[in-house]
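Q&A log
Question type: sequence-to-structure
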Amino acid sequence: MTDAILGFLRANGEQLDVDIAQSLDIPIADLRDEVARLAALGDLICCRVTRYIDGRKIEGTSCRLSCDPPTPARGRKPGVKKADDSETTNY
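Response status: OK
Response body:
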């Protein structure tokens, strides 16, 4: 079951525990036990989330691989300075 969970997250990225259980056809209680074990080992990063989809409140645990950081936000990052071209003079 561990390989199936890790393979699913590797292929699909961050997912809710309910979606993982439904896709892999695993009982949610068994999946939550296995996810807790994998999180304790450091293979997964999990957090409790609340999402509102079409006005419905959905609570669950969001899981992702620990080696798969989220993509950085686009645009300039704080603390990054542009090179100042005015100091160089060509004679």
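Response note: The longest helix spans residues 28-41.
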